[in-house]
């Protein structure tokens, strides 16, 4: 059984880096909080833990944090 559908986050382009995405989407309040969450392994991209802040996200990628999922949309 799968969880709820990911919330679509429109980034206005073909992609965005992971760290700014977390702040832009309102998932975390600051870039510093996003950096810590990523480095500590609390963020997953497409189901796999991602520890690179500069990971380039593409349209359709799904970011998960604390049981909530967000899908990158153009």
UniProtKB/TrEMBL annotation:
Keywords: RNA-binding. It holds the Pfam family S4_2. It comes from the Bacteria. The keyword RNA-binding applies. InterPro entries: S4_RNA-bd_sf (IPR036986). This is Ribosome-associated protein. It comes from Microbacterium trichothecenolyticum (Aureobacterium trichothecenolyticum).
